[in-house]
Amino acid sequence: MGSISIIQIILVGIVGFIAGIDQFSFTESLYQPIVTGAVVGAILGDLKTGLIVGGTYQLMTIGNMPVGGAQPPNAVIGGIMATVFAISSHLKPEAAVGLAVPFSLLGQYCITIIFTIMAPVMTKADKYASEANDKGICRINYGAMALLGAFFALVCILGLVGGSAVGSQLSALSQKYAWIMAGLGAAGGMMRFVGFAILLRIMLANDMWGIYLTGFALSTVIGKVEGLSGSCLLLVSFVGIAIAIYDFQTNVKIKSLVVASDDGGEEDGI
Fold first, then answer.
1. Can you tell me the distance from the alpha carbon of 101 to that of 225, in angstroms, rounded to the nearest whole number?
2. pLDDT, tens digit, for every residue of 1-37?
3. Using CB atoms within 10 A of its CB, is residue 218 exposed (0-12), middle (13-18) or buried (19+)?
4. Is the dihedral of CA 202, 206, 211, 213 positive or negative?
5. Helices (H) and strands (E) in the chain, counts
6. What is the pTM of this model?
7. Which residue has the higher pLDDT, 180 or 96?
8. Closest Cα to residue 110, out of 147, 85, 81?
9. Any stretches that span the bilayer, and where are they (predicted)?
10. Which DSSP string corresponds to 9-74?
């Protein structure tokens, strides 16, 4: 990618600003890497790479979630920077994801600091609540959102400018020290499975093992069929949706039968 324009810098900053607020306030999933990757990729002139990198980073972070005050590596900053590295330095998605991890850790630390700073302000919010001062509460909320969004925008802009400036050096590094890029690629490739493992640990129930293994078998078989490998996950998802709909309808019918049998009734003289 050539030199970036001021318009691209501003647009990436806006994306970071909106995504940072959305992650904690709007919760419209605009902050998800698969969304920000595509948007940033379109801004930088390579939508396809943005979609690929965003999807790769999404798989890595699918099981990450904050627990109490603990924050996982930030997916917004990591996803945007992975897209920037992949496009500006022409890196493979796995290697770009590996290079973006330090940025996601930076986001994790800084968000924790922001939350710590805002914690004492909650006493002021409690006071406003007791006084029924809705304007005061709105000022606190909007101020916190603006601070968080500004931080995300600043980090993304600095990362975009720096990432583009060192693009040629990273490309040379990938050629001269191929083993480093191979290691980053391997690490980035493993992270998606770590994300799935965390998700399964939280969500998987004993009665779901059959469906899980069925999906694994279907994805393996379909993935080997030429012409279907590209849409393998989509096809397996459709099978999963069909099973979920069938299971839901079956449970609804069983519950309705149980309710009907409990009502008794006088039909046919019974």
1. 34
2. 557 788 988 999 999 899 888 888 776 778 888 899 9
3. middle
4. positive
5. 11, 0
6. 0.61
7. 96
8. 147
9. 7-24, 30-53, 74-91, 97-121, 142-165, 177-199, 228-246
10. HHHHHHHHHHHHHIIIII-SSTTSHHHHHHHHHHHTT-HHHHHHHHHHHHHHHTT---BTTB-PSP
